[in-house]
Amino acid sequence: MTDIRFHINGEEHIVPRKFPATTSLNDYLRETAGLKGTKVMCREAGCGCCAVSVTHLPPDSNTLKTYSVQSCLTPLYAVDGWQVTTVEGIGSQREGFHPLQERIAKFNGTQCGYCTPGMVMNMYGLLHQKPSISAQEIEDNFDGNLCRCTGYRPILDAMKSFAEDANIPNRKPIDIEDLNKKLCPKTGDECSNSCATRRLDLQLNGVSWFRPVSLEDLGELMKANKTRKIRLVYGNTSTGIYKTDGPFDVYIDLHGVKELYSFETSQNMVRLGAATTLTQLLERLRGHQNKPGFKYFSQMYKHVKVVANVMVRNSGCIAGNLMIKHRHNEFPSDLFTLMAGAGAEVEIICTDTGLKIVATMQDFLSKVDMLNKVISAVLLPSLPDNVVYRSFKITPRWQNAHAYINAAFRIPFTAQTIQGRPSIVLGGINSKTIHATKTEEFLTNKSLSLAVVKEAYSILRDELVPTENPLEASPKYRKDLASSLLYKVLLGLNTSRNPKLWSGSESLHRPISSGLQTYQEMAEEFPLKQGLPKMTAPLQASGEAVFVNDMPKFQHELYAAMVVTDQGSAILESVDASEAMKLPGVTHFFSSKDIVGENNYKVSSGFFQFPVHELFVSNEVFYAGQPVGLVLAETQALALEAAKKVKVTYKEVSPPVLTIWESLAKDMEFKDARINRVVGNPEEAWESVDQKVEGNISMGSQYHFYMESQVSLAVPSEDSIDLYAATQFGDMCQHAAANVIGKPLNYINITVPRLGGGFGGKSWDTCAFSAAATLAAYLTGRPVRLYLDMASNIHICGKRAPFVAKYKAGCSSDGNIQVIDLDLMMDAGYTAHGAWYLSDCLNLVDMGYYIPNWTIQGRSFRTNKKTMTAVRAPGSVPAALVIETILEHVAKAVKRHPVAVKGLNLYEKNQVDLRGQELIHCNMKEVWRRLKDTAEVEGRLKQIDAFNQENLWKKRGITMTACKYAICFFGPGHGATVSIYGRDGSVAVSQGGVEMGQGLFTKVAQGVAHILGVPLDNVKVKPNQGIISPNSLVTGGSIASEVAMQAAISAAEILKERMRPIKEKFPEASWKELCDKCVWSKIDLCARVLNSPDMGSPANYHTYCAAVTETEVDILTGESQVRRVDIMADYGESLNPVIDIGQTEGGFVMGLGNYLTEDTIFDSRTGRILSDGTWNYKPPTTKDIPIDWRVHLLPDTPNPSGIRSSKASGEPSIGLSVGALLANKLAVQAARKDLFGSEEFIPVVAPFTVERAQQSVGLDESVLAL
After folding, report:
1. pLDDT digits (tens, 9 = 90+) for 700-723
2. Which end of the chain is more exposed for a tag (fewer CB within 10 A), N or C?
3. Closest CA to 1008 of 1036, 977, 969
4. Could you give the percent of the chain with pLDDT greater than 90?
């Protein structure tokens, strides 16, 4: 019995045995060590924001090893004897920033900054593993870090600037001295036994934690505890997937068992110890891939590189992965498929008897009971030279995703003939299928011919019986995909094939990404209109930027967790919290009965009028995930555990209405929200058109995926409550908090430090969590912190509104559109508030194109879902999909390329748009023309046409998209207070806008520094506080940065004018002397201005931008990649072009997610969201961005209607990314023309996933060729 000991940033921590065995390293770092730079979000090893580096001595080595891990899944008790380095430990503003922190800040690689510490620490561990590193290796190893803000390009550029071969300005490899700060000085060198792994025997409140140091020791422990439920622990990564496994009585940490680390080779076999990590597996595969009999290791190496992500591969071992498959046969284990395909065997030790058995992979899965047994090794055989080994993993996105299906083929092949029986192993079909036995039998000893290929394709498709699962691809796609992969392999075996077929056997290859940015600065106004990184970027990179959940724990603080419904349409019968309250440390449960004010968090005021949204359900349940109450406990983990024990019962349960079509059938339209609009004279226009097209469009629902989940902290004070909220709308949160406890607004002191991403998702929904935390603090008299876990966040909060549209368009013979009839139906959720986004969409549906005649009908429908909410550009995202689809359809009908047809329909200066506004300053055509020339579109059209003629199974598409984005200065605006401290001349600014990554604070500081003529670092912008900036508008609609900055500029101008007489009296005085003289001259050096610009009619101005998007599609699988994107944007005289380009790139990539990979999946029986974590919800990663990405800001275009001649940049670019969907569809249509002679237009569905792309082709065996 002992306490565990380890070092954090060079400081020893002795940890008593008071923590549960399930406590993670992240829990300890944040809650006990107080190191909040390490963030937390998914707790699934899926986002990377919790990354730290660890250093320890493996039992099979005398050299300390350092690598990065996800601290959210790393068990606390597993790090005994280790060194842990967090982002605080490598650099800070006090001790100096680390080169990694400096570099990512300098490259503008941070926006909200919540993901940044994880990015830094992933790279820190990577450089420890390989200080001399290539750009390709860096890009390959950022597969486990998600960022919703930046679009990844500047992050990758910053990290690749450490590569020896990178073509990056200011490239400089890491200095080895910068890697070993606060680490043992012997790191990387030989080490004595003082660092050796020690045996552990810990008793933790009835649960045992052991760390054996030998295989014999392990066997004794397992025998001694054979009647208890045992969990063998190594990487612990499976808990991110299967969260309900357990509870366990005994945990046995395998890090100290030397025998499990063995590595042996011979001519016939490679033996890999069970504790071989996936990272070590990669090293060993690469090290032996050129040896006779093991050349198939090169294929394995490529495949293992896309298993999970780098930090999971660093932590997880091969035996652990295989045991996940053993416990959960449905798990699509890539390792199992790879190894079974190679004919590998598993070496297993029976701890009861000490006997060793060797089993095939299939027997291991289906015949071996692993109770009281442990995997000791995996045996990989050598293969004859004539054996072809191929493997595949087809996923929803490029990396860090489990497979739709995976496959491994082992085929002995000589002289166009299969020699004997091939092996075809498939994962992701069902829990039973391993080998495609009928297909194997058919292909045995077959000579390769087209007839054989077609028959094998058909047999494989027919013998597979995929399970139905709403979270997986359709059974049909998985059958078709398996057959396509077989065809790829057989096509690759054929030596005399048509060159047009060559690309079919290969997978898509993605080269290293690159970027180019061009912009104009205005030197006469510096530091305003200068391209600068965010001022707080270094603090974000060092983990010193404080988010709400990073605030230190208050005395007597309680943690809260929401209790939510799991039925979507019912009457609440009862809520029983008695079992939860029995848990030691659980203190309170509150429900609607405890609300002392009004049970409504969506409070109305002025422009924002909302229907009632109950904080806690009182009677009718409207959606699954609706809060019914709040549990309070002494720890966050305990609160979450208690919330699951609250029993909610229902009556009058009915099937939930989850689609527009279901709502339409039940006549559940919000008819008061219906929109009917006629523009021009459509009836007359229809009589004169040459061509008509009609079709349907649909789009799913996108989750915001901000990295910082919803959080509020309420702290009682002597006569009020101090509320700290991560919100875009502090004024409304303040109102909601006061409303729920029946107090005036001055009872609530609200502070908004910063947001870890918002995207509209922290506009209204945040009010519920601020209200709940405030209610709990008010009733208990104790501070209450409410931080939602990721799943709760997804279940409770609103999302982007799904829609379906029917359209009919009429055009001239060359594609000039004269008239459109549009019927757009939107899913509003359970209240009519969701209908707001229908109006927004229909106001923007013309986007960059002039259509003189419209008939528009818009309808909103009630469903059993949370009320839909604002998600970045809530109107223009569906609008872009609608109008761009119509234009593409028209182009197909008139047999012209969409680029030509779109260019024909662009807005021109002085035309009147859909809402009746004359576009006096329209430069849409100029933006389009310059972009088309810059991006060399005409030449690339010819290149793509040639590529498509030369390749049957790979196709490319290219298109252009245009955006006219209406910017409207709505609401009361934002105020700013500028204070100059006379003693030293430093300047502080407080204003009403919220910093959430868009660079608002930096732009405000730039404006103030410019007016006052002081250095930028002389100005600090303080967190938003309601007492200083009351009645502020929501930070949204892309306008807050400009409005707040102008308020601060106006206040600075007031101060400058006040100081002018003193400046004239003392012209030689320095700034510091001038400020001091002003104070003693009784001049007030504090000024406040409310900037409330007049609202446009209907818009103040428009932002114009356009994009060229080129993609490539693997027709056999549906996989695609964005080869190149060029963007041209008119942002007037950009207030900060570097920040505005960051907004452009981040918006574009978020749009890629909406149009290609992201959707929300519901349980049709209950209405519960199933895609509630990183395992099943897939935003883009670093390899989903454009490979070649060029962004240009249009020069010499001051905006006469904007603030300081600028334009807003936050939202316009997101709709441009619909071009990726449409380019993929053009590629699919090119394939259909080749294969079937089809000229039909494929209906548009977003997201246009890998599955949808492949299924749109309509492949069958009749079109196969050799």
Report:
1. 999 999 999 999 999 999 999 999
2. N
3. 977
4. 94
Full strand arrangement of the beta sheet holding 691-699: 675-679, 853-862, 817-829, 803-811, 691-699, 1244-1246
Burial letters for 1189-1207: b for 16+ Cβ neighbours within 10 Å, e otherwise? bbbbbbeebebebbbbbbb
Q: Would residue 1211 show up in a list of annotated catalytic residues for this protein?
A: yes
Q: In angstroms, rounded to a whole number, what is the distance separating the alpha carbons of residues 143 and 1180?
A: 10
**Residue 787 β-bridge partners:** 711
Predicted TM-score of the model (pTM): 0.97
Here the tokens at position 888 are 């593409």
Q: Running DSSP on this structure, what letter comes out for residue 28?
A: I
Give every strand in the sheet of 647-651, ordered side by side: 620-621, 570-576, 647-651
Annotated binding site for [2Fe-2S] cluster: 42, 47, 50, 72, 112, 115, 147, 149
Count of CA atoms in the C-beta half-sphere (13 A) of 586? 23
The pairing of beta strand 1244-1246 with beta strand 558-564: unpaired
495, exposed or middle or buried, with CB in 10 Å at 0-12, 13-18, 19+? exposed
The answer to whether 674 and 7 are in contact (CB under 8 A) is no
192 pLDDT tier (thresholds 50, 70, 90): low
Q: Token pair for residue 1203?
A: 């603030």
Q: Rounded to whole angstroms, how far apart are CA atoms 1056 and 1071?
A: 12
Q: Supply the pLDDT for residue 1.
A: 53
Distance in angstroms (rounded) separating the CA atoms of residues 41 and 31 = 15
User: What pLDDT score was predicted for residue 178?
Assistant: 80
Q: Are 710 and 816 in contact (CB under 8 A)?
A: no
Structure tokens at 741: 């406890």
Query: Reduced to 3 DSSP states, what percent helix, strand and coil does the chain have, rounded to the nearest 5?
Result: 35, 25, 45
Compute the C-alpha angle 310/312/314, nearest 5°: 70
CA distances from 317 to 62, 140, 264, 273, 327 (A): 20, 20, 17, 9, 16
Q: Which residues contact 120 (CB under 8 A, 6 or more apart)?
A: 87, 90, 98, 100, 101, 104, 541
Task: Tell me: pLDDT of 176 over 70.
Answer: yes
Q: What is the 3-state secondary structure (H, E, C) of 510-571?
A: CCCCEEEEECCCCHHHCCCCCCCCCCCHHHHHCCCCCCHHHCCCCCCCEEEEEEECCCCCEE
pLDDT at 193: 52
Phi, psi values for residue 132, rounded to 5°: -95, 100
From the annotation, which residues make up the binding site? Answer: 42, 47, 50, 72, 112, 115, 147, 149, 393, 728, 759, 872, 1037
Q: Annotated binding site for Mo-molybdopterin, which residues?
A: 728, 759, 872, 1037
Q: How many CA within 13 A on the CB side of residue 306?
A: 22
Q: How far apart are CA 106 and CA 104, in angstroms?
A: 6
Catalytic site residue from 440, 669, 888, 1211: 1211
DSSP state of 1243: P
3-state secondary structure of 1116: coil
pLDDT tens by residue, 987-997 = 999 999 999 99
Which string of b and e fits 659-685 if b means at least 16 CB within 10 Å? bbebbeeeebbbeebebeeebbebeeb
Distance CA 1057, CA 985 (A): 16
End-to-end Cα spacing for the chain: 68
Positive or negative torsion for Cα 1034, 1037, 1041, 1047: negative
195 pLDDT above the threshold of 60: yes
Spell out the alpha helix ranges (H) of 1130-1265. 1137-1152, 1218-1236, 1250-1257
Looking at the DSSP bridge assignments, the partners of residue 822 are 807, 856
Q: What is the pLDDT of residues 829-846, one digit of tens each?
A: 999 998 899 999 999 999
Whether 710 contacts 762, CB under 8 Å: yes
